[in-house]
Every structure is written in structure tokens, then in C-alpha cells.
Amino acid sequence: MTDYNYDAFSPDNYNLASADGPEIGDKAPDFTLETHDGQNRRLLGFEGACMVLEIGSMTCPLFLTRQDSMEQIVRDFPNVNHAVLYVREAHPGAAIPAHKTIDDKRDCAALLKTELNAPRTILVDGVEGAAHLAYGSMPNAIYIIDKDGIVRFKAPWNNAKTTRKALEAVLAGKSTPTKSYFKPAKPWVVLSTARRAGAGSGKDFVHGLPQLIWNVLIKNNIRTFFR
User: Fold this and answer.
1) In what order do the strands lie in the sheet with 81-86?
2) For residues 53 and 41, is the Cβ–Cβ distance under 8 A?
3) 15 pLDDT band (50/70/90 cuts)?
4) The CATH number of the domain where 142 resides is what?
5) b/e string for 76-92 if b means 16 or more Cβ within 10 A?
6) Are 118 and 112 contacting, i.e. CB atoms less than 8 angstroms apart?
7) 2 within some domain
8) How far apart are CA 74 and CA 2, in angstroms?
9) CA 194 to chain centre
10) pTM value?
11) Does 35 score more than 90 pLDDT?
12) What pLDDT shows up at residue 219?
């Protein structure tokens, strides 16, 4: 295991100043991944009009905050493929620690599928995060990829309202929104996520919170406004 699967969260685990990964108009990287129940699936082997791909994990309060809104998008756009790329634990703790093996990661993805009754396809990244790194390595990025495998929309932080507008634009053959503002996780979701993850998760989150507020909530949204 490398530092990719960190045991304790720190803002230094992420490049918060920029969003790496494929840009709009680029060919999306393809990978053969497992689903939560062990089936092999090509990331770009979908049959819908396009794919909405969200990055997430069971210990990411941002990802869990978006669940209701993203599930509504699933219901409203049945002709689209909706998938989650399950990556490293954003805020590991004693109950949901960093992944040591692919079985650990698959078990956490299955927990997401069953505990939260997630309606989307859960694709499990490799234990060293090859797909996650190729898609920028942020904890809750969002991509919309068309049937030709071209990225039509990208945001380093999923804002479900903007994602919905972007999806409508892609399906209508129009330009997608150029600005997607960061919205923080709901406080009660942060607390429930930390409890689920176990001892250490909440402490590490609180310790890194000032840096997150400055770099993500303030600086990121200022850059987005002037972009």
C-alpha cells in the first residue's frame, strides 16, 4: 500500500488548488473495473445516452450529502447511465479504515449499495486508485461522458444543481455550464459519516477544517466566480 490509501485524513492528501484529470473535450480514460458484487465492467462500456460519473466513498460527507439529489437525477433521467466510482476512503476511521486489499474496497462499496440503497452502478477502483488518479483524485468530482467517450462536463466538486443543468444541456446538444460552485456538506451528514467511519475520522476532519474552508469553500468559489 502506498500513501494513496492514507490512514488519516489531511488536506495535504489532495491538490486543492487545481483539478487534474481529463478536461471537457478530452477522451475519458477507460478502465476495466469490478462492480460491488464482483462483476467485471468497462468504465466506458455503458449503453445509455451518456454517463454521469461521480467519485465517492462511504466516508466522504460531501458525497453522502449529494445522495438524495443525485438519486432524483437517476429517476428523472432513466435513459442515462448513472455510476459511482468507489475510491479511497476520504475520512477513514477505526470502523471503516483505509483499504489494504481489493476485498476491503469491495466490501465498502457493497456497504454503500446496501446500507444507503444506492440505485447507481457502483464501480470499484483498484486498491492503488489507478482510475481515481486518472480522473483527478478529488474525493467528490463529477463527470458527464458522452457515448463516444468524450468528457462533456467536469467539476472538481459535485454540485447536484449544476450537474442537473449540465446533463440537460448535454442531452439537448448544448454547451454545458462553465461554473460549478462548491457547496459544503450538511453538518448532520458530517457527524453521521464520522460516527459510521469510527474513531479518528471526526478528529482528523476537524483538524483539517480551517484549511478546507480557506482552500475549497473560499478560494475555489472565488476562482470559479472569476473564471
Assistant:
1) 40-42, 32-35, 121-124, 81-86, 50-56, 142-146, 151-155
2) no
3) confident
4) 3.40.30.10
5) ebeebbbbbbbbbbbbb
6) yes
7) no
8) 35
9) 18
10) 0.95
11) yes
12) 87
Structural domain for 192, as ranges: 11-226
pLDDT in tens, 64-121: 999 999 999 999 999 999 999 999 999 999 999 999 999 999 999 999 999 888 789 9
Residues 168/152, Cβ–Cβ less than 8 Å: no
- Count of CB atoms situated within 10 Å of the CB of 144: 24
| 181 burial via Cβ count (<10 Å: 0-12, 13-18, 19+) | middle
> Do residues 34 and 41 lie in contact, with contact meaning Cβ atoms separated by under 8 Å?
yes
- Cα distances (angstroms) measured from residue 66 to each of 27, 79, 136, 189: 26, 21, 19, 10
Average pLDDT over the chain reads: 94
Q: Does the pLDDT at position 227 exceed 80?
A: no
Q: Does the structure show a pLDDT above 90 at 223?
A: no
Q: Is residue 1 part of a domain?
A: no
Let me know if residue 4 belongs to a domain: no
Domain count within the chain: 1
- Based on the number of CB atoms within 10 Å of its own CB, is 163 exposed (0-12), middle (13-18) or buried (19 or more)? buried
Domain presence at residue 6: no
